[in-house]
Amino acid sequence: MTASFHTAEVELLRSLVGQLLELVHDEPEAKESDDGWAAALGLADEDTPARPTDPVLLRLFPDGYNGDDESASDFRRFTERGLREAKAGTAATVLTSLATSEGMNPEERRPRDKTRVELNAEEADAWLRTLTDLRLALGTRLGISDDDEDEWANLSDDDPRRHIHDVYDWLGWLQETLVRTLSAGLP
């Protein structure tokens, strides 16, 4: 599968994915685990990740159980590290596919020049996952909710949220285009 991006779009994707990678790579603060049973079975780390206070991190790494703090903590302890590694891995795959797709020196490129990105099935999956994470992050920061499109459509052009929402929409378009392309290739 091949996609074509303008240089400015490639730079935007690199920036967003790089920020996402930094966000999920940061080690969460840990709290001491007091589960002797898990330690005795070799299932517990010495530290349990604390529940994120950043709304974006909480959206990317949600509680596994609502209303049950102990079960949510256990869920976080056994899953968060793997989720962070998976999200970082898919983001790194996107960055690598962008880096290896460039045909000329980035310093010689103009904003409207085109870059072709070729993806295999594994890379396409990484792109879909990373685009989802980017949209979750931006949607959370913007406070996007169901049925609020009229509000976003009526923002003035000088409202900085409008431009970020435009990026959010563009990422959704990329995601939808990728899904349609992948679906067209299925038997």
The overall pLDDT average reads 82
Give the helix/strand class: mainly alpha
Strand order of the largest sheet: 1-4
Ranges where pLDDT stays below 50 over 5 or more residues in a row are: none
Q: Largest sheet, if any?
A: 2 strands, antiparallel
Give the CA-based shape. globular
Strand content bin: 5-15%
Question: How do the helices and strands line up, and which of them pair or pack?
Answer:
Elements: E1 2-6, H1 7-25, E2 30-32, H2 36-40, E3 47-49, H3 55-60, H4 69-101, E4 114-118, H5 121-142, H6 149-153, H7 160-184
Antiparallel strand pairs: 1-4, 2-3
Helix pairs in contact: 1-4, 4-5, 5-7
Features:
187 residues; two-stranded antiparallel ribbon
In short:
This protein is mainly alpha-helical and 187 residues long.
Explain what this protein looks like in three dimensions.
The protein has a domain at 2-26 and 82-184. The chain has helices spanning 7-25, 36-40, 55-60, 69-101, 121-142, 149-153, 160-184; strands at 2-6, 30-32, 47-49, 114-118. The chain is mainly alpha-helical and 187 residues long. α1 (7-25) packs antiparallel against α4 (69-101), α4 crosses α5 and α5 (121-142) packs antiparallel against α7 (160-184). The two termini are 16 Å apart. It is built from seven helices and four strands; from the N terminus they run βαβαβααβααα. It has a two-stranded antiparallel sheet. It has a two-stranded antiparallel sheet with strand order 2-3.
